[in-house]
Amino acid sequence: MKASFVLTFIFSTISFISTAIAQNNSSAKSVLDNASKVYSSYKTIMADFTLQGNNKQENSNFSEKGKVYLVPGSGKFKIEMDNHAIISDGKTQWNVLLDLGEAQITDVNPADKSINPSNIFNFYTSGYQMNKLGETKVGTNVLSIIELVPTDQSQNISKIQLRINNSSGFIYDASVFDKNGNKYTYTLTNIEVNKTFSSGIFSFYKHNYPDIEIVDLR
Q: Which is more confident, 117 or 208?
């Protein structure tokens, strides 16, 4: 599982949780319902993030930092890192790989059921068992620990753990565990809401990347 997959897993638009969750836990659902309500109340969200990964096969660790901009409910988001950017206007997605010197263009598929930035807050409406494992304290923040386990055993993901701030309703961090024993954790900091974004922030402009080759995968 690559870092780019985890990044596209973390960020999303939002919708309310349905009753279709398999074997749901009422306490877990209550926490996620509240997070959904809080998240969808904002016009825009901007935050810094840190992504940390542990790869057992390669016996290696990595850490990356970046920034995310998104508009809840629209499918629009932008993720910025030193050598990588992901931009979506809700219809088209640009995956800019600066180290490879290319920008990959794909269509956003609303019917796609895979975990991606457009469905992080409602991907678990079906196909996941959920449970609240308890609470923990980080500084002055009390966090609820929610575990999601795929019912489809063919998935490479073994489980997902979300820690959600009980006070703000925001995700504090999210950890993805795969079946190879690897773990990837994303932590959100410096959250700002209802900021006005610059025009065109969710569009790709070639003049911003003059040395990039366009690879159209549509």
A: 208
Tokens 């910025």 belong to 80
CB-based contacts of 23: which residues, under 8 Å, 6+ apart?
Answer: 129, 130
Q: Which residue reads 């930092």 in tokens?
A: 65
What is the overall mean pLDDT for the chain? 82
Instruction: Compute the average pLDDT of residues 23-32.
Output: 77
User: What is the phi-psi region of residue 90: left when phi exceeds 0, alpha when psi lies from -120 to 50, beta otherwise?
Assistant: left
Instruction: Please tell us whether the domain made up of 3-216 is placed in CATH 2.170.150.20.
Output: no
Amino acid at 131: N
Give the DSSP letter string of 78-98: EEE-SSEEEEEESSEEEEEET
Q: Which residue has the higher pLDDT, 176 or 119?
A: 176
Q: Would you state the structure tokens that stand for residue 124, as one six-digit string?
A: 């678990």
134: left (phi over 0), alpha (psi -120 to 50) or beta: left
Query: What pTM, to 2 d.p., does this model score?
Result: 0.79
3-state secondary structure of 201: coil
